[in-house]
Amino acid sequence: MLDETLLKGEERAMLALRSLYRSYGYRPFRMSRFEEYEFYMRNKDYLESGRIITFTDTDGKLMALKPDVTLSIIKNGEDEPGCRQKVYYDESVFRVPAGGQQFREIRQAGLECIGDIRLYDVYEVLLLAAESLGALSDRFVLDLSHLGILSALLEETGQDEAFQRKAALCFAEKNAHDLRDLCLSRGVDPAVTERLCRCAALCGPLPETVRELEGLCPAAAAESLEELRTLSRLLGETPWGERISLDFSVVNNMGYYSGIVFSGFLEGIVDTVLSGGRYDRLMHKLGRKSGAIGFAVYLDLLRTLRSEASDPDADVLLLVPGDADPERVARAVGKLTAAGRSVSVQERIPAAGSFGECIRLEEAETC
Question: pTM above the 0.70 mark?
């Protein structure tokens, strides 16, 4: 039977997430490390970086090491009216992170709910996002926003796509000052400008901030606002309600995402640990008729947590002479592992590594 105490934090986290996702009817999704390069190039605007590791297959076809999981799940699924494809994954992707210069192998877990998406499905995915963060740390925040409301606010300005992209960037940066200047330069109605700037500054507990938002939304956002109200009530009844905030700086790619988008953060990690949202536009771009919502958890970031750093490489560093009888060593190691302790056998103390305690072979034999 697997002893979870012998696992590193990353593996323990995946075990917890796998159990969580299975409990809501999600099944595992497995994919190849490789995909046709052309597939990713057609959708490179969706990727964090357009740079992709490629190689030529034995048949001369240009292939790529996968930079994304969601695209492959969409490609390999089929629309089934009235049903949802519910999958989770634990995969490595290969890409240049935002702000980075070199390719990295990034381990991520996540889930996708694809099909006739209803409000309950949105709630369930948000709940699982909060549960996922809670499984990793008891100190987390889940920020969510609604692109339906943001789109309605931007449309109300009557400006072109170039303006809307710049305005969305101001929202992402919480930069109400530049947003106001942008609106002034384009002659946007002062009342509309004021609503935009106030929304850009909105950030706080979900119930209170939704109430604040009610007086700022244009009529075109009424359905989106009602969706937020309902989600606020449902999430407020969960153990995680106080950790969920409304924050309009959460702005994912508006060419692919629609509706609810969200990001999760853990204390002690500066980067976004969880990211997701509803991506109906991406589905339609890939020829699917269904809706979809999901998220990814970036497991490799857990290595920066203080608790992860405190995990020893082994409970016991067992120092043995180079000429030690292998049978003696085997008996000593067996005795320690039978007691539930992990053991690293070395001839001397390594320059790098951490261990619960260091003992010599003779001491282990008398324990």
Answer: yes
Q: Would you state the pLDDT for residue 99?
A: 62
Range of the domain at 343: 312-366
Residue 175 CA, distance from chain mean position: 25
> Exposed, middle or buried, 224 (CB in 10 Å: 0-12/13-18/19+)?
buried
State the total domains in the chain: 2
- Residue 160 domain flag: no
> Do 23 and 101 belong together in one domain?
yes
Separation between Cα atoms, residue 321 and residue 355, nearest integer Å: 19
Residue type for position 66: K
> What separation, in Å, do the N-terminal and C-terminal C-alpha atoms of the chain show?
25
State mean pLDDT over 207-211: 94
Q: Which amino acid is at 130?
A: A
The last residue of one of the domains, among 264, 292, 311, is: 311
Contact predicate 174/275, CB 8 Å? no
Residues across the chain = 367
pLDDT of 304 over the 90 cut: no
